[in-house]
Each structure stands twice: as structure tokens, then as C-alpha cells.
Fold each of these.
Amino acid sequence: MPGVPVEERDRKPRVPPLPTVVRARERPDRPPVCTVCRGPAWWNGWRVVFPVVATLLAGVFERWELPLPKAKCSQCRHGFTCYPAGIYPRRQYQLDVVAWATAPVALGGTSAAETARATRAGATSVRRWVSWIAALAEPRDVVALAARIDPDSPAGTGLSSVAAAPGARRAAAAAVIVALEHLGAALVRGGLRLTMRSGLGRVLGWQHQAHGEAVLLTRPPSRLSPAMALWREAALA
Ligand SMILES: [Zn+2]
């Protein structure tokens, strides 16, 4: 490349950055009611975030420039951000991306560096996600919840025979991933409209939709609550 100093050429990353897709500003005419006091709210500007999302093609990811509408309550002055379906709050790497990057590592056969390269996350991030998933839920509880939601579901079958990669942490993560896939599938069969496609994305996305709870990577995970099953039964009754 003539005219470009050698050092600059060498500094070029070997993996090109993800394409950035600029998303349009979209919001309904009126914001939803306040998340704290259920009072009326008004639109209060935008916040731009840059999530990494999974596309419909397996293993293909995009970075979005996504404007999120902000609202403010006219009663209690609480400010809140509205997320479109399928976008999980306060996460750069969206849950389907995390699921895609961690499942092959936890279940064996792929290194963290390999899946990290495809998602442009660091291998350290992928290992941290594996630990996070391992501590996220008790597989037995998740499977029991799936069986309550969908009694015909084959939940639980195969859980004890999950072929995990060597290591206690990976084995624990593998069992959680398989259990979440069961629960995610049961939720969809039960009629919930969930945009995310991984078990992790569906279950946490549902928890957020139903309870407004977001599980943060930077804090110890809040356990999946059995109250969710009660909510589900009440909603279907
Ligand atoms: Zn309010």
C-alpha cells in the first residue's frame, strides 16, 4: 500500500470490525405508562446505544447504532428508556450473541478465542460469560419450570447426559444452557411472542418483559425466581 507507513499497516486488526447498521428513530405516538407509579409519561428525547446483535444468519453479527426513546413520568418524574422487542437493556453484546459464543465453548469442541473472533468480543469476555451462565440458575429449577408451563415438553430429558467440555465451570454452564433451551422452547410453545431465538435470550427476555428485571453481567446474577411460574399461570388462566 504505497503512501501508508509500515507501522500503520501493521497496526491494522486482522479481523475487520463488524458492519454498523444505523437504525431509524422509531417510537409510538405516546410512551407507555411509568414503570414505577403507572402514571402517564411524555417523550423526553433519545439515547443512542451500540448493541452487537445476532442476525437471522447463524454466526453473522452486526453492530447497531440504535436510538432508544426516553420517557419521563409526569407524576413522579421518573425517567426511563424504552427498548424495542429483542433488545436487552444495558448489554452491548446481546443475549443471542452471548448464547452463540458460549454454547460451543461450554458444550465442548470450540475454544473461547474462536467464538470471540466471530463476535468481535475478547476471549476473556467469552470465558466470563461462561462463568456467568454457570451461576445464573439451577438447571433442575429451570427444567421444572419448563415442565409446569408445558407439561408435554420433553424437558429434563438429556439433561443428565449433557456432554460438556472438561472443567466444572463449563459443565455447569452446559447444563444451564440446555435447561434454558428447554424453558425457552416451552415459553414459545406456550404462546409467548419472543423475538430472541436462544434459550438464554428467550428466558431472560421474558423475565425482563414480565418483571422489568434485567440481569447484569457486572453484578452477581439474580436467580430465576419461581414467582415467574406463578405469573405465567395467572396470565394464562
Ligand atoms: Zn411515575
Amino acid sequence: MKVTFLGTGTSQGIPVIGSDHPVCMSTNLKDKRLRVSVLIEWDDFTYIIDCGPDFRQQMLTANCSRIDGIVFTHEHADHTAGLDDIRPFYFRQGDIPFYAHKRVLGELAKRFDYIFTTKDKYPGVPSVIQHEIKNESFSLGNLQVMPINGYHYKLQVFGFRFGDFAYLTDMKTVADEEVEKLKGVKVLVVNALREKEHMSHFNLKEALDFIDKVKPETAYLTHISHYLGFHDVVQQTLPENVYLAYDNLKIEL
Ligand SMILES: [Zn+2]
């Protein structure tokens, strides 16, 4: 399995528009963060998790010309606002499979009604195949994927375990029985916003405590704010099996 981090930034991305914060001014490419998404490839299958406002740019950078579907964690705009740009995939492949909680599918149908409607479609508008995810395993390609239920403040969010790889973002609370589902995972990706506490995201300490509970071989932090600091500085403070993810990082399992 090959995983590409398409984006690793929090909702505004880094740099933040108009900001003169030193991290936003950094010339290190590891301090440039698009909105979070990952590309997961195994055998002949290619899926992405989330489809934020940087989706087009991310697909071009990753040289990705075909996807088998998009899996959504939740409906917030930094995870869904790029939806119109599935058009090139739709033109080549036909209807694009979406996998999401029923509530998320409903929200997307409100925001992108022209995509979800089945009558009087404007020519060139893409179409999707909706797959509802419940908190039970579902198949993607030849793999059974296990959702991990958590909360982003009060909003339900799904993380996902693809065999030895798990990806959780926008988590603030995860019940013990959900953490159990992550036991034995080799690579864990989890969100870490900044050092200071936040109402709806793990801060760095909460992310490290979470990693300590799951005990993966290796962990990567994502959904990072400029307030966390410079990549190269923060990386030196982390335990030896924990890494700050950065855009275009590729890992193989
Ligand atoms: Zn987010």
C-alpha cells in the first residue's frame, strides 16, 4: 500500500492569506500546507480521503488521473469544498463513488445540489454514486475498511482503518471501544493542531497521548496549524516513532 499526503494543513492552510506569522513566511516547503487529504493506493485501487478546496492542485501534483472513489470524514468545507473538480474524473470514468455518513451525503447534496440532482442536469455536471457508511466495516476494492467513530467538538467524524494503515483527522474525542479497533495498526495518522488546547481538535499533547494509547509502529501528525511552529523545529521535539507529515510525503506499507 502506498499513501501520499496530498495536504496536511488546518482549515486555512499554510500560509494563511495575509499572515506575516514566521511559519507562514517560511521558505521551507515542509511549512507549506494545503488542506488535508490523502491518496491511498494498493493493487489496482486508488482512493482519496476527503476532497477539500485544494483538490484540483493536489490531483495535478500527485499526477493522479483515475480514482476509484472518495471517502469522506465529515462535511466541513476544508474537507469537501473541492467537489466540483471531480469533473475530469467523471468525464473519463463516469459516475464517481462517494462513501460517507448519511448526514454528510445529505449535507453535500444541499451544497452541491446540481451534482446530486437526478433530473434536468446541466450538461457537463458530474454525477456520483452514493454509498452510506455506518459504523461497521465496508469494502473498498478488495479491502475491508473499518470506520473509527469520533467527535470534532459535537460533530460526528469518521476515521478509517485500511488494514495496517489508519487515518484520523479532526478528532477531539474518541471512545475507548473505537480506540480498540486501532490495535495492531502499523501506521497511524492523527490530527495535531497546535500546542494550545482547542475545542474541536487534538492539540499536540492530546495527539501524542492518543498515539501512546494505540501504540502503532509509526505515527504521523496532520491537520497542522501555523501555530504549531516550524516543521524542522517541532520534528526534533517528537518521540522517535512520531513524525510531522508534510505535503507530498509518500509512505509505503
Ligand atoms: Zn478540518
